[in-house]
Amino acid sequence: MVDKASLDREKARKHLRALCMQIERHDYLYYRANRPEISDFEYDCLQAEKQALLKLYPEWNRDEGPGSDLGNLHFPTAKHLLPMLSLGNTYSQEELFEFFHRVEGKVQNHCSYLLEPKIDGVAISLVYKHRHLEKAITRGNGYVGEVVTENVRTIKEIPSTLPENAPEEIELRGEIYLTERQFTYLNDEQERLGLETYANARNLAAGSLKLLDVNEVARRRLHFIAHGVGFVSNDLQLDTQARLYTFFEQWGIPVFSFVVPGNSAEQIWDLMARFRLTQEQLPYGTDGVVIKVNDRSLQEQLGVTAKSPRWAIAYKFEPESAETLLQDVTFQVGRTGVITPVAELMPVDLAGSKVTRATLHNFDEIQRKDIRKKDIVVVQKAGEIIPAIVGVKKDQRSAFAEKIEVPLQCPACGAPLLKITGEVVIRCTSLNCLPQLRLKIVHFASKDAMDIDGLGPKIVDTLVSKGWLKDVADIFTLIDHRDAWIRLPGFSVTSVDNVLLAIEGAKNRPLECLLYGLSIPHVGVELARKLAAFSSSIKQFMQLSVEQLQAIPLVGEIIAHGIVDFFANTRNQSVIEKLFRLGLKTSFLKTPTKQPWNGKIFVLTGSLARWTRFETERVITSLGGNFGSTVTKQTSILVCGANPGNKLVQAKVLGIQIWSEEEFLHHVSDLHANRS
After folding, report:
1. Which listed residue (11, 50, 118, 585) is catalytic?
2. Which residues contact 655 (CB under 8 A, 6 or more apart)?
3. Mean pLDDT, residues 379-406 taken together
4. Which one of 68-82, 349-363, 540-554, 558-572 scores highest in mean pLDDT?
5. Separation between Cα atoms, residue 425 and residue 106, nearest integer Å
6. More confident residue, 286 or 225
7. Which of 30, 445, 465, 630 lies at a 20 to 30 A Cα distance from 121?
8. What stretch of H or E contains 312?
9. Which CATH class is domain 601-675?
């Protein structure tokens, strides 16, 4: 017979396993996908529940490292000279005071502390050698991170060189962040384009840091602030943390403005309470205060765990929340057809503003939280900016509560909705869905797409309202409306004819511009260029299978399914046929003149001395080659730099041709010589 203790133990083990699976999923969404579905507070509650179970059953504990943002395959990796760990955190005054008791019990002395805002940003390690910025490495898993040096060079607060009093080699560490003002601006821009808004400033900063287009990174206007060091080649007389910050300031590097020594737990508690009242005045988002032992020799004495230093802790503020009635749910249709459910709320005051609507993210999230119409819901401002529903008062659920049904047809145009394999969103993929129409046309005419100068949002609004534009192909019929267009208020013969000339010029744009301009799910500028190189015509491209698409660099299963489903839509097929009937030239479909590396897929591993990864990709593509991120059977050549990783082993197993950096440079030199 099984006793109750055994049953309880087995129940606890199952619950722990479920918690670990939940946490692992949210780690992936937060660190790697940059699209979290729950707030930091909800995540910390899951972790606290897990730790409570592990205290009861310590034999189940594993010595885990910190969460990892590794997984972006477009950047090389590098080891940190010293581990880059994350901070332990608490929401409890009692646990905070326990931290002080542990520290002072260990050092058997009364010590001073530094306080600084806990910025909701992305940790970065800046490696300076001979006082020049050599590498910028993300935290990664704490031991290995991704090298994002070229993107980091766009940040104005990060110097390319350090002054003479700096050490020969130093790992300078800090946070990359977006100001709340810039975050709001970028989200407003997304909304204007009908795109999904960003979850919070932290995840937008993380995503921006790993963009392939360095110009777009610069446009995002990231910022940096320093908070520590890893390896230092000499001690710089760094007796205290405050002394370290003095050096940072001398080198022109920003440090936290709120740095106050504290001498007792009670004093520190009072300072944190005062800081919370003034945190909204800071340009960056904060969710708490970091407390550090000031004396660096004591820091070394206290040491670290596998996850975090024992000499520092983050006290996090519990986010403001409010309860209100979820009155109804409406659906927004974005440019790429994503259907976003939006909660219509009974107005409620929250964090200094009146909230009437909140995002419900997606239908999986609604089901997971069991949110229903007429429920009393808990609303928080995610990242202190975007209202989101974080919970439901199920004990107050009325008999009138209604389940939120997933729509089968587009709420705007009635077209069938599609859920692409591997995605959580549902989409309307019709090219003539009216709410998407204005946004699709503006996008189609944009500089990186068909580059129709003068066809901006205001003009498009006018032309759509007149009924002259019912899909993107109708742009090429505007010549038929010239006389009526000229007579409209605000227009003239010159302004209208300039737009018509630009439209005529768009008939000769390359294939990649059309692929980007069609608003195919997941297809951005970079991917459109890759796709265009693998087909000789749009008709050939439309016939590619999921498997054939996955052989193209940057195309995974989700993207491949999205492309196939887009071109399988009969409405989309008719719009594309109409485009060519209206004058897109046959030359528009031809691939460029044959180049020496046409059809070859290159993959890099290790660090190259001659060029950056971005520069190397440009050289490869200029010779007709394509740039892959992983070694597969389709890979033609692996280029090996210093300290190659697992890609070298994979290439040897698959029999892929391997070039050293010297061999690669030799081939490039020969090809350029033959062309000149």
Report:
1. 118
2. none
3. 81
4. 558-572
5. 51
6. 225
7. 630
8. strand 312-316
9. alpha beta
Whether pLDDT at 138 is above 60: yes
Active site residue 373: no
Task: Return residue ranges of the chain for CATH 3.30.470.30.
Answer: 77-316
Distance CA 519, CA 333 (A): 13
Query: Which regions of the chain carry the CATH code 1.10.287.610?
Result: 4-60
CATH code that applies to domain 321-403: 2.40.50.140
- CATH architecture for residues 4-60: Orthogonal Bundle (1.10)
Write the CB contacts of 543 (distance below 8 Å, at least 6 apart in sequence): none
Cα Dmax for the chain:
93
Name the CATH topology of 434-589.
DNA polymerase; domain 1 (1.10.150)
- In the chain, % helix, strand, coil (3-state, to 5) comes to 40, 20, 35
| Type of residue at 643 | N
Strand stretches in 294-350, DSSP E: 312-316, 321-333, 339-350
pLDDT of residue 159: 92
Rounded to 10 deg, the angle between the 570-581 and 557-568 helix axes is: 70
CATH 3.40.50.10190 domain locations along the chain: 601-675
The pLDDT value recorded for residue 476 is: 94
Would you say 613 and 76 are in contact if contact means Cβ atoms under 8 Å apart? Answer: yes
The yes/no answer on whether domain 77-316 falls in CATH 1.20.1440.230 is no
The pLDDT, as a whole number, for residue 586 is 46
Residues of the chain with CATH 1.10.150.20: 434-589
Q: What is the mean pLDDT of the chain?
A: 81
Residue-wise pLDDT for 605-630, tens only, equals 887 776 666 667 767 876 778 777 77
Q: Which residue has the tokens 């590794």?
A: 70
Amino acid (1-letter code) at residue 433:
C
Residue 589 has pLDDT above 60, yes or no: no
pLDDT at residue 587, as a whole number: 41
| Span 396-407, average pLDDT | 90
CA atoms of 192 and 189, how far apart (whole Å): 5
Round to whole Å and give the CA distance between 28 and 35. Answer: 9
- Positive or negative, the Cα torsion across 553, 558, 561, 562? negative
Q: Helices 457-465 and 434-444, interaxial angle, to 10°?
A: 140
State pLDDT tens for residues 89-123.
888 888 888 898 888 887 766 688 888 888 888 99
Beta strands in 515-672 (DSSP E): 601-605, 626-627, 637-640, 657-660
